[in-house]
Write a structure and sequence with these properties.
Layout (H helix, E strand, L loop, with lengths): L2 H12 L2 H10 L4 H11 L1 H8 L7 H12 L10
Helix pairs in contact: 1-3, 1-4, 2-3, 3-4
Amino acid sequence: MNRKEIAALRLWHIMPLDTMTHFAKQQSKTTDQLCLDVVTYAPEWAFRITEGFINWCINDLRHDFVGLVNKDEIFIPRL
C-alpha cells in the first residue's frame, strides 16, 4: 500500500459512516473510493489529518470532508 492508500484507509476509520455513506450514494461510489478521492484531491489535508494522534473535533472533520468531497471552490478547511 502506498501513502495515499494508507491515508484513505485511516480517513475511512475516523470519519462518521453516515456522512461517508450519504455522499458515496450520491456519487455512486463506495465509501472506500470516496475516501481515496478526497486523499487524491487534497493530499496535504489528508496527511495532516491521518498522520498523527490528534483528537480532531468531529464537526470540523465533517465540515472539511464535505467541502472536499464536493470540491467546493470557496471552501476553507477548518483543520
